[in-house]
Amino acid sequence: MAERRVLILAEGRFSVFDAKTATCVIRYAPQEVVAVLDSKTAGGTTDRVLGFGPPIPIVGTLEEGLARGPDTFLIGVAPRGGRLPEAWRRMVKDALEAGLTVVSGLHTFLSEDPELAAVAERTGSRIHDLRKVPTDLPVASRRAAEVDATVVLTVGTDCNVGKMTASVELTKAAERMGHAAAFAPTGQTGLFLGGRGLVVDRVIADFIAGAAETIVLENAPGTDFVFVEGQGSAIHPGYSGVTLGLLHGSMPDAQILVHPPTRERTLNDEVEIMPLADWIDLYERLAGYLKPAPVVGVAINGWDLSEGEAREWAARIEAETGVPAVDPVKFGAEPLVEAVIERVGVRKGKAAGARR
Amino acid sequence: MAERRVLILAEGRFSVFDAKTATCVIRYAPQEVVAVLDSKTAGGTTDRVLGFGPPIPIVGTLEEGLARGPDTFLIGVAPRGGRLPEAWRRMVKDALEAGLTVVSGLHTFLSEDPELAAVAERTGSRIHDLRKVPTDLPVASRRAAEVDATVVLTVGTDCNVGKMTASVELTKAAERMGHAAAFAPTGQTGLFLGGRGLVVDRVIADFIAGAAETIVLENAPGTDFVFVEGQGSAIHPGYSGVTLGLLHGSMPDAQILVHPPTRERTLNDEVEIMPLADWIDLYERLAGYLKPAPVVGVAINGWDLSEGEAREWAARIEAETGVPAVDPVKFGAEPLVEAVIERVGVRKGKAAGARR
């Protein structure tokens, strides 16, 4: 597939924290990004805002962005609730007028908006709604437990902790170690980056687990590992249903807990984050009613930590939990993949003698 | 509201077990039902099949049903996955032709089916899809915790254990005890019976908890109790996400565990049902991360038990769990309402001194 030339819309919100999709695309596909559109940080470059990656220009208007020759306009901010702010409608129309493919992860489907659809129809430009999901998903019934590949789910201490990033890093580490590995995206950002998946939080509630099951069944053949991107947290007041459906639908063999150590309270609800040992107990219990899935390691989200600090946190977390901990972005996820192999094996077919 | 005259479609599947909607409507609104359509049991009466209620005729064809003068045609069977069997399409068309309002709880919206919609348009007959839900639901954020009414959620040891029935019985018992009480339906059958609610399992996954929150906020004003109909079970491979979202969105003050004592394994997955004390621990933990909600009693589903057997099971379950147990259909749910009052109070405003 030819590389895209992506202009990312992050209007008014370009930061590591607020523009998750933009940040992740710049981390994993920087060569595809020609500019970020954000009038607040315009004039600077993305490396100054994010603290990593190449110096991609930030522009203040769509016109400046178009001058950099993009072929894709990505809505790079996912507002809570997922709907399109009216202020962005004009930009989407202009991008379509300019012949760009508009890619959106919003809950409101741009392709079903009469005005935008009419512009797309007239100009021949495409609208790709990442959240569109199949309408023929099954009710899950533990079919994912039967695949031969080892399935690993990332779970978190909160929403927005870096489960997608950890899943991508796990996949890359497994590949570096010589294994066949598939990243199974369950959110719009992961899906934009590539891989067979679907946006699970968009599915009708009865089919959440069925969606996860479908993703695992599609990714498992011919690979050693399937790393399933987790969502939310098991006690998130808004999203816990998605989290649990994903866990029971994907039927993982092992779980990796993702945690930003400097976050002491949850993002949207100001609840104190429980000790990690309690989190591990909770996720192992919830999985274990249907199938054992040990939490074999902790992926540290150290976006705000130095290398030294990340190592200190890793040592502290290992002492606290008894499982390996590492910041996979800084140091690679190899120790976590090793932990999976040690505890549950590379493939279940080969793992008969492994410790479960 | 004038009473309806309902013909219930339960073709090929009329039994307590297989026709949940039909069974519950006959239990709680028998005066509205003119006939059941099922060619397998045709010629008999519903009391012979169900073991309760008045002798409502069972007919074998739509024509015979229409002869009894219905104004409403209810799809009374909810197939796994919720879709309309092709064989029933003809009957729905004929019912619309005959001027009946068609009410459906299927996932496939009959009102959006071009052929059926055209018939409705031409004849002026109405199609009411119970599963249609609002598109502007919020992401939940614990707003339901702040209502003044005492919120009680029914939870179960499996799907299809009688959570709706228990919730209706709790509401009726509270009313008999002189309290204002609202039944908050979350499934299509409850919604058909009445009450402010919506079909939670039809909601987009991100908004499950938000749907539950909305239902509680709508029902709470001016009432002492809101009895929220639960769904699924916390470890059901297909539906656990809905269960947990409902729990975290409705923010109950207390939970009632519903269990059919003779069921030893789960319906669809052949897992052994855990001891009730473990179930109580699980639901209290899952709620307690966000807000304490003790399981204050067990509602026994004794559809297959004699009164004596139901009393024996109640004694056994009380000894095992330490909380009151009763078959609410046979004996009324008063002991369970009393348990709620003793543990958490009638209204939170008044419950400051109550044991939590």
Tell me the span between the first and last alpha carbons of chain A.
40 Å
Q: Name the CATH architecture of the largest domain in chain A.
A: 3-Layer(aba) Sandwich
CATH topology name of the largest domain in chain A: Rossmann fold
Greatest interface and its residue counts?
A-B, 43 and 43 residues
Largest sheet of chain A: 6 strands, parallel
The portion of residues forming beta strands of chain A comes to: 5-15%
Topology of this structure?
Two copies of one chain form a homodimer.
Chain A: E1 6-9, H1 20-28, E2 33-37, H2 46-50, E3 58-59, H3 62-66, E4 72-75, H4 86-97, E5 101-104, H5 114-123, E6 127-129, E7 150-156, H6 163-176, E8 181-184, H7 188-193, H8 208-219, E9 225-228, H9 240-250, E10 254-259, H10 276-288, E11 295-300, H11 307-321, E12 325-326, H12 328-331, H13 334-344
Helix pairs in contact in A: 4-5, 8-9
